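A note from the maintainers: we've had questions about how concatenated examples are separated. There is no special marker in the raw files; a new sequence line simply starts the next protein. For clarity in this README we add a label.
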Amino acid sequence: MPVEILTVPCRSDNYAFLIHNSETDETALVDAPEAAPIITALEGKGWSLNTILITHHHDDHIDGVAALKSKYGCVIVGAATDAHRLPPLDMEVAEGDPLSVAGHSVEVIDVSGHTVGHIAFYIPDANAVFTADSLMALGCGRLFEGDAPMMWKSLSKLAALPKETVVCSGHEYTAANARFALTVDPANEALQKRAAAITEARAAGNPTVPSFLSDELATNPFLRPADPAIRSNLGMEGASDTEVFAEIRSRKDRF
């Protein structure tokens, strides 16, 4: 079925995503950092809103839910394990649960780490995964509630998706992530080229999200703890992937 994904900038650096099926005229939203720009985007397209998919409980991903629910009467979907701290849910889901949104089958993936109960939504028909603050462009979310083994397990699930998958993440953090990535993987030519392109895009006021999973696999150090060059740069040639990931995350926290 035909699908259109619209990236909606919100707040200072958040992104929400509208998913529209032109055959059924249904529209879903992933996360609602604030209502106004999402309403503007919907009205500009002449779309209504049928469903909101919530990835996790942080305010900058749910602040607009109540206003959108009031305006559109949409169905609110979120993680069952996070329901106690999300806006009232019409549907609670967990990894592996069947879900259909805007005429498309959606796979729910537990990507706990940034928070416990964070979920991602993978839509094979749209060739897209909505990762919010788990896998990000050239980065990953800070570990506020989970730990490194938990996050590495989550990122490994996302890394196993088809390489052509479009990664729709939740923030415009890519320029800072690129500067950090070059400190642990400085000889990576693909990363060097991507960092230059990011600098150019941001100078022109253009977004760097979404990104392709293939690019993340080639340049995102948080997906590359097995890379020999990164291990050598960190002095961790004999460590496990989880240990190397933990060191990269720790260094980014201090960067």
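[label: protein 2]
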Amino acid sequence: MHKSICGADCADCGFGGKHNCKGCAETKGCPFGKQCFIFKYIKIGGVEHYQAFKRQIVEELNALQIPGMPKIDELYAINGSYVNLAYPMPNGYEMKLLDDKEVYLCNQVACEFNDDEMIKYFGLVAGMDFLLVAAYGENCTAPELIVYQKR
């Protein structure tokens, strides 16, 4: 079994097994071919410093006060291939803003305004220097970029 140093559950990652991932402990923070900012953060500042950093990002996301988005209290390390959606742009094209080989801090929450006919979710993604919030339907259909900002 591969190991992470951030607490991510490698056994539950459907991406890693398909792509011969050896986990971040064995790859020195490069499980998907790129240096993971979380691994680097923990190696430099320790787990306690990383936990404080994660709490800060949670506070920043909650401070956005997006209508219908409930407060969050946790973020999870997720491979970019799971959260890298193609968003429609004003010019009619779709664009992905993330990197499939990066690791991000993420969460998904149901919109508080859902009814029986429509179910909407918010996807929250954070990197070392940005916050992204998207809204989408079931199975990530019809994604809409709500916030993409530097931190």
